[in-house]
Design a protein that fits this description.
The protein is of the alpha+beta class and 158 residues long. It has one domain. It contains 5 helices and 4 strands; from the N terminus they run E-H-E-H-H-H-E-H-E. It has a 4-stranded antiparallel β-sheet with strand order 1-2-4-3. The protein is globular.
Amino acid sequence: MVIQVDPVYEPSVRAVCVKAYPLHPHGCPNFGHKDTCPPKAPRLPEVFDLTQPCYAIVNPFDIGSHVAAMWLKHPEWSARQLRCCLYWQPKARKMLEMLIAKFVEEYPGHVIARCPEAMGLNVTETLRRAGVMMEWPPVNIALQVALAARPAPAKEKP
């Protein structure tokens, strides 16, 4: 699904990447290593023209059905193992990429961010203001969200 949104830019969102979670006491292992992750990732206004229409490309992934299917295959697994992103994200990302490809065909000239939260987008609040509620943590549906907009205007050199 593609919806026009008014991006909620909050640079502090990038700090979520360093919050501890199971087996990762220092947060995401990509932090500081990938160019698309903080602190290397550019900030939203550096990439997008936020004065022009912006779009959320949303892939709703049925994580509830995925967990149920995994439980049938692996009844001995813990709930955390059944929800492990290593088992569902590749399929979901492929679905998101198909949505992005369709968007790019229909809306040429837009820049796409596949991980806009790394750029400071408060995805939850942006979607809420557009009428889309996210489960957090996701129980039935996990939403993958890309942001699309026109590129930021080139800055003049002094």
